[in-house]
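Schema walk-through. Below, the input block comes first and the output block second. Nothing else is stored per chain. Lengths vary across the set, and this one has 258 residues.
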Amino acid sequence: MTVLVTASVLIYGATLFNGTFDRATDAYDAGNYEVAVNLYEQLVSDGVVHADVFYNLGNTYYRLDALGPAIANYERALHLRPGFTAARHNLDICLQRTRQALAAPLPPAWEQGLLFWHVHLTPAFSFRMAIASWLLFWGMLALRLWRPLPYLRRAAGVAFLFAVFFGVSSWTKEHPQLLAVATAESLPVRYAKGQEEKARFELFEGDRVSIDRRENGWARVTTANGERGWTEESGLALVGPPYLRPSLGITETAGGTS
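--- output ---
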């Protein structure tokens, strides 16, 4: 796997963040992977949402042979930074180890049709462009009141369309379909909620699914090929948001050690 991203690459002013990140990286380099996972997960639980943290988490889970959480964290990193080449490379390595090599579920049809152009944009870029286009639209309207040039009306219309498209893109980036990755070696997907229900098909570690309903510890999942059913959430690592830690039996103790 590609080496970790170091704290010096991250642009954060918080000493606490850099201190925890550095300790996690040192633990990883020393082969203390459970300690590193606890420290990186501590950053996530403290509200740090950054592609480099998720990328390093993916590498650390991979070293722990936790394929599902590794894939989930690479997916998180790529959602925040679609051009993250190292994360894409490591994700491909993980997917080659999965039993079924299932493709990831596609976004809804309307998103594929209307927002095909925003696949490689980061959430932050879409948000900034939406705000900038909206301010430009109102600025042109104000300028037109002061000096009614003929082209300003058309230019304002174009700015409005940009604001709408980037606004929808930004909202979609911040509210993606909920993806999850199987963490169990074998995870039955049933016709209905309940362990007594008949299994419809099986997921295997590393398989990615979308979730459209969650009820009492159960999730209704759909695969890329359209198979659907209910499975226990405890066997899944959510890609998020929200960015929840998967249950793998790794002990958390004070200071992030185990």
